[in-house]
Amino acid sequence: GQSLEQPSEVTAVEGAIVQINCTYQTSGFYGLSWYQQHDGGAPTFLSYNALDGLEETGRFSSFLSRSDSYGYLLLQELQMKDSASYFCAEDRGSTLGRLYFGRGTQLTVWP
Amino acid sequence: EPEVTQTPSHQVTQMGQEVILRCVPISNHLYFYWYRQILGQKVEFLVSFYNNEISEKSEIFDDQFSVERPDGSNFTLKIRSTKLEDSAMYFCARGIPGQGYGYTFGSGTRLTVV
Questions:
Q1: What pLDDT does A15 receive?
Q2: Is a pLDDT exceeding 80 seen at residue A66?
Q3: Chain A closest CA to B59's CA: distance in Å?
Q4: Residue A59 neighbours by CB distance under 10 Å
């Protein structure tokens, strides 16, 4: 089976920094991506890591450690509009792009 | 302008009826996917479609489901005899596996089976 673990919810205030962790199953691991989803909306791609290290895209960064089967999404300078669900998703090279999603982390940003 | 358009945005159907969900991916990608998300739960893979053929399907994608690309552009998901538990958001997506570009999801169709 497949299993990605991430916290169910996180809260923070505007301007703060928050880190959302994700651990994944190692068998066949190819890469880890992150998606944002606002209520009622479609998942929107944020970031992807196939190699160890940090990928930075504006206020959002994603990190991967293959040796620890672990990654995180870092959100800086939080804004109210960042309140959403954040999903880590694993793809495995043998499955032609099928994504295995975590259960999502609900981020609430307070003023 | 959305890159992946889905219709209808919301469909209500009676249990046992057939539904067809449509997706128009605006590009020449070869890889397309259907996912579903039951309210409040995670996004689940249904089927992948490569070069006009099913390349992989999940255990959810049973004989009640089928996919087609009838005219080379539109991409459909058919549920032959809907059940209450089929109520969910259905997303189509396009992407390039393993390339790190991420998948583009359509806006989704909310299917409600009553």
A1: 97
A2: yes
A3: 12
A4: 13
